[in-house]
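User: Just a sanity check before I run the rest of the batch. Below are the structure tokens for the first item. I only need the designed sequence back.
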């Protein structure tokens, strides 16, 4: 039963492993080539993703939500669209690096259409790619292709925003969470206050919540303080 449970939790991983075994049985040379390609992309991800995740933490912790909402939010208008186009165009790294950044921007108030613009420009109209396009295909080709692509991106962004709402997206575990301490259970040990004085404080020999968590970077620490509470008095509600 435990083996079945592990397989269910890692279905994609086991499916990929099974696919590799099937290819190995049919064509060992192609299997070896596939493994080499997978290793190459895995090494690339290991090199890129830590930097990207660090960037998302910086955005989440240091960039005010109001700034993101002004620049990329529902009321940002054409200015927000142009900023999203610029951000995607000057970005670096493979497209999968854009997804955690886009998730962070969404959590800070960016709207759907601007996220579509960022992802799309990151994928197909990045500035470094345009220079290569000019080198191999000429400037006229690049300009016409860029204009048509950007027009299509803007149309796709507005259509996506019409049919997809933020409520349709997977919820961020750290959003809309309320930290609560059950006063009747708290024994006043102060462990939580010592661990996270920014989020807990003592009042009348009882721990109380000082502020609620904001951002994914604090969720792990909050959960650790919940687990350390000997009275199990701390809860995190949606």
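Assistant: Here's the designed sequence for the first item:
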């Amino acid at each position: 039963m435990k083996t079945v449970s592990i397989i269910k939790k890692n279905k994609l991983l086991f499916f990929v492993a099974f696919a590799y075994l099937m290819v190995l049985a049919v064509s060992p040379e192609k299997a070896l080539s596939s493994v080499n390609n997978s290793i190459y992309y895995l090494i690339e991800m290991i090199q890129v993703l830590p930097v990207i995740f660090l960037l998302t933490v910086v955005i989440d912790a240091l960039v005010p939500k109001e700034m993101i909402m002004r620049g990329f939010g529902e009321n940002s208008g054409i200015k927000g669209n142009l900023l999203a186009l610029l951000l995607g165009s000057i970005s670096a790294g493979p497209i999968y690096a854009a997804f955690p950044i886009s998730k962070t921007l969404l959590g800070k108030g960016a709207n759907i259409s601007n996220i579509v613009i960022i992802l799309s420009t990151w994928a197909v109209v990045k500035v470094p790619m345009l220079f290569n396009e000019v080198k191999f295909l000429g400037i006229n080709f690049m300009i016409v292709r860029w204009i048509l692509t950007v027009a299509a991106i803007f149309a796709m962004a507005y259509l996506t925003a019409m049919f997809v709402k933020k409520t349709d997206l997977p919820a961020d575990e750290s959003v809309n969470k309320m930290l609560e301490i059950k006063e009747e259970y708290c024994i006043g040990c102060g462990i939580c206050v010592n661990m996270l004085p920014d989020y807990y404080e003592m009042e009348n020999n009882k721990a109380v919540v000082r502020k609620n968590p904001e951002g994914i970077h604090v969720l792990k620490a909050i959960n650790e303080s919940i687990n350390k509470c000997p009275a199990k008095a701390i809860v995190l509600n949606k």
